[in-house]
Amino acid sequence: MPANLTPDYYKAEKWFKSATTTEEKILALEEMLAVIPKHKGTDHMRADLRKKLSKLKEVPVKKGGAKHVDIFYIPKSGAGLVVLIGTPNCGKSSIVGLLTNAKVNIADFPYATNAPVPGMFKFEDIQIELVDMPPITAEYSAPGQVGAYRNCDLIAIVIDLSSDIQEQLDVSLDFLDSRRLLINETTDTEDKQGNKLGKKAFCIGTKCDLAPDDAFEKLKLLCDRNFEFVKLSTKTLHGTEALAKDLFKLLNIIRVYTKKPGKKADMTDPFTLPAGSTIYDLARAIHRELAEKLKYARIWGTGVHPGQNVQRTHILCDKDVIELHFS
Ligand SMILES: Nc1nc2c(ncn2[C@@H]2O[C@H](COP(=O)(O)OP(=O)(O)OP(=O)(O)O)[C@@H](O)[C@H]2O)c(=O)[nH]1
Ligand SMILES: [Mg+2]
Fold first, then answer.
1. Which residues surround ligand 1 with Cβ inside 6 Å?
2. 7 C-alpha to center of ligand 2: Å?
3. I need a surface site. Which of 123, 178, 195, 250 has the fewest CB within 10 A?
4. Per-residue pLDDT tens for 29-70?
């Protein structure tokens, strides 16, 4: 009986073949099992997949021995980690080069970048980490590249507005969709700890100085996702400010400043917390044990009287100043 495999199955199989870590292979195999047509013709294949899956789940964590360095493991630093994705020559390195001091390789030929290059972007009083990446194509991505996206806070899809927009969208979205990298509140995949695996993404339409006037509108029409779009040129600097503001907005973080009673607040080095965080979350971010001793706080900022007393459940706003009081 023929197996009659579907495009979704082939996508998941491609993901499995490109996966380099055990965790990623497990996810891809689970996806293959979820989408494989269930009938007599696939009985053997399904048994085979389940066998592979249980073997992988048994693999012990290796200790000692030769160390494998994963260049796509990017440790988080700063207030948020944003990783770029795009096809060859679309302008990724130029964006990271413009916004950070990272030593990126910008070239007028494709495949100039072959390893991730992180840089720190200063936005007002915080630092946001931006990572330049090797390009992807319909056929190829670097082994392990998916790991950088798996570990980030936000994915920036870079589209060269002066080139074939549809083709670039297809390549990047296909890469992200087939690995379940984009957030989808209803069907999102979860890891062992129950964390959602999908990431928020947005789209940068770059090289607008070279592109036809309607290219940016075309990008918004062609892309059927609920993304934010930024129109950019790293040559004329059009859109740089909008991009900076979007990066901060999409990371969905707030800055809060602390002060000691009777002293002025330190307005140079804020704590950054996920939007929706409370006074208690702030106390925990400062010191886990101290948080339990928190009695109340005084607050200066949005929606409160200056110096108002608030409880630990009070939800913080961006730029609030907080004085914590302990028992
Ligand atoms: N006119 C113009 N040229 C740009 C712009 N952004 C990038 N370029 C040029 O486009 C070429 C490719 O830019 P890169 O930033 O190296 O592209 P990339 O996406 O990093 O390329 P790969 O590393 O191959 O993936 C370079 O010649 C850049 O100078 C832009 O906004 N306007
Ligand atoms: Mg590059």
1. 86, 88-94, 106-108, 110-113, 135, 206-207, 209-210, 233-235
2. 30
3. 195
4. 988 998 899 888 999 999 999 999 989 888 665 566 666 678
Distance CA 157, CA 207 (A): 14
Tokens of 160: 């060269």
Residues with CB under 5 A from ligand 2 (ion): 93, 112-113
Q: Contact at 8 Å (CB) between 73 and 147?
A: yes
- Identify the H or E element spanning 155: strand 154-160
Mutation pick for ligand 1 pocket among 96, 103, 104, 106 (CB with most ligand atoms within 8 Å): 106
Q: CA 223, CA 154: separation in Å to the nearest integer?
A: 18
Residue 225 CB neighbours (<10 A): 14
C-alpha to C-alpha distance for 36 and 15, rounded to whole angstroms: 14
CA 187, CA 178: separation in Å to the nearest integer?
A: 14
Cα–ligand 2 centroid distance for 300 (angstroms): 44
Q: What is the pLDDT of residues 186-211, one digit of tens each?
A: 555 565 555 567 899 999 999 999 99
| Residue found by looking up tokens 């969208």 in the block | 169
The structure's pTM equals 0.85
Cα 80 from chain centre: 9
